[in-house]
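User: I'm putting together notes for a lab meeting next week and I want to include a structural view of one of the chains we've been expressing. I don't have a solved structure, so I'd like a prediction I can at least talk through. The sequence is below, exactly as it appears in our construct file.
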Amino acid sequence: MRAEPNHRLAAVMAEAGASNKGLARRIREVARKYGDHLGTTHVAVQRWLDGKGIQRQTAVYVAEALSNKLRRRVTPQDLGFPSIAHIPGSPAGTGYAGSLPEALNALGSLTHQCPEDSRPDETQFPDADVHSAVLAWLVSRPEGVPSGASVTRRIGMRDVAAIRTAAGFFMQLDFQFGGGHAHKAFRHYFREDVLPLLGACYSAKVGEALFKAASEISQLLAWSAYDIGNHALAERYLLSTMRLAQVVGDRMMGARILTNLSHQANYLGKAPQALTLARASVEGGRAGSTPRAMALFCAHEARALATVQDRKGAARAMSEAERFFERAGSATDPEWLAYMDEAELNGEFCHCFRDLGQNTEAVRFAERAVELTDPKYARSLGFCRMVLAQSQLLNGELEAALATAGLAVEAGDALQSARFQRYVDDFRREVSVRAAHPVIQRFDERVREAMDGVGGTDDG
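Assistant: Thanks for the context. Below is the predicted structure for the 460-residue chain, given as structure tokens.
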């Protein structure tokens, strides 16, 4: 049966003003960037225009080449190629994107990846690549939203409001039940309802609000992947989201992404990288962030400093965080920052004092954090209770520590969070040296009953 001409590919090429030879050259350049050396020529392009088949990976390269030319996202489906899910080994989130279409294509590919299906060979980026991305963001300038002049679909503030409402819902789902509950819904919503809007037509005002709202959802995708325990996927989302925030010069969101990267590095034992990232968030966010946001950034610098046992530096950073927090009511914060309240600040500080071995202070701040935390932030409450239990244990208060940890485990039995599971496992290891003690045996039984069936594993 004779193949039908690919009119969709022809239409997009015409819109981009791309000849067969010109497109072939661009495809080779895109492939080379990912270490793939193709011999694509104008002959191959003509075959695709005639409706002949194409390799799935090559279709991804064609879409990116035309995306870069048009400065808007183009998918393989837009070009009349078969529906393509993520292909193992394809360029999904390969660092800090050089262009907006590249970032959007990376995010689109990432949404096809399930965190629980990570490949054994999938690793995080080398430190040098992360630092290069940070530098690129620090010296970047807003490039402005794309015009979308050739697109017929037009959107307005109602569309943006819908995304912000969804972001608030997803954030609460993540806080209350953990990343394992929420990530699949995040991915589907971002891929099907958010990414298509970024390629629509809108005013500059709507476009700025739209990109900020999209960054919020994308950041939540990263955070939930991190909470599940897929650190490579989380890092790819974070770097792509940072590139998304650059479009409209959203320095506060960009600094928040750096804080998240610092948090993750600290969690994985990469203390020097955590400190570099935290300091970059403080300095990079200083010019465009509210006092509440700066309190968050400084608190994470304090946590990184506590990890490297810089007691003086950690005390300075905590003092700066407190000073910024005292002025938190003097500016209008974005909705995504609402969780950064007094309980959250005390929670960050109790981690700092625990890591510095200042157990009396750790207990005091952890007790305050537990007292102030709204139960809807179930995961944060679980973390603070576990830090309190660890600090009580180090103070020689065994029964109090076990009671606190038991409460955390029972209240957190619905959390699908690899991070919470690690807090529990770390505490169990710390008490295991006294495993013969009857009260510890009873505690272990409580943990087994409460955590049975709770999702989330962590390989880091």
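A couple of points you could mention at the meeting. The chain is about 65% helix and 0% strand. The two ends are 53 Å apart (CA to CA).

User: Perfect, that's what I needed.
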